[in-house]
Amino acid sequence: MEVGINLHLALHQLRYETSSRVVWADAVCINQSDVEERSEQVALMGEIFQKAYQVVVWLGSEPASHTRNAVGASDDNDEISSQAFAMICSIVDTWARETYRVDIGRPQYRRQGSTQDAYDTIPLDRPHWEKLKPLFSNSWFTRMWVVQEIALARRATAVWAKSEISWELIGLAAAIIRTNWRYIGPWGGHDGIGSHRVPVGVMNAYFMYRISSFRSNLDPLRFSFCELLALTKQFECQEKHDKIFALLGLKTSDWAKLFIVVDYSRPLDDLWRSVGSPSDTSLEAAFGDPSLRSSRRNPRHSQK
């Protein structure tokens, strides 16, 4: 069978040279053109990722095109990925040495008086950030389906070119960067990175890290399914139904009350109304579809 170039590269990179390896890939294991089969299999996705021995985060074999042009030809891919992962390890190692707690909800590198000691030893000035930018600019960090994959994984490994790293280290580094951005960004001195807004890739990585099952040492986040939809509105998917279906494996505060059947043939506005009440503006924000506003104002009963 024919597969896309990205999956082809992933399978080639992940295979063992001397032994077999079982890999589950939705593009191969699910007939994407069969709506009925796709609906049935997508309903099992949460269970699949939860029971998997390991979830592989395939970041591709090449960095973003703008980075490749700036840094050099594609034969520099291994160096770019290894430098980014080395920076991840450096940030986490520094944080571990400087703090003796696992509370990433407050800044760990505080400003002392009027000096710039807020920066302390965290290695994230502009040159360091340039090494990390290709990683957090990767389109993987914007995909809707990866939220559930990471949140439910017992173990996740990120693979980029020929480099590998535990995804938990990427998530923890993102949490450290996000928490300390105001000190290491444009206000922090030391050649500020240039923007007061935390990069989307960093925020998305932090969010996935925060809701992941392996973060058992932190208080669990509590939110409804509609709130989860609003929190994930920046993630992208080709099929708008997946804004909902891609999150069904995550247990929210109202999880027991949700009775959503995965059905791609179901009209989107009907699916939208089944999730929340007409007053739930978070749904409208998540879908970003103005046509749903009229559906909310003039609800109609679906035909059985």
UniProtKB/TrEMBL annotation:
<dbReference type="InterPro" id="IPR052895">
    <property type="entry name" value="HetReg/Transcr_Mod"/>
</dbReference>
<dbReference type="InterPro" id="IPR010730">
    <property type="entry name" value="HET"/>
</dbReference>
<dbReference type="Pfam" id="PF06985">
    <property type="entry name" value="HET"/>
</dbReference>
<protein>
    <recommendedName>
        <fullName>Heterokaryon incompatibility domain-containing protein</fullName>
    </recommendedName>
</protein>
<feature type="region of interest" description="Disordered">
    <location>
        <begin position="277"/>
        <end position="304"/>
    </location>
</feature>
<feature type="compositionally biased region" description="Basic residues">
    <location>
        <begin position="294"/>
        <end position="304"/>
    </location>
</feature>
<feature type="domain" description="Heterokaryon incompatibility">
    <location>
        <begin position="3"/>
        <end position="149"/>
    </location>
</feature>
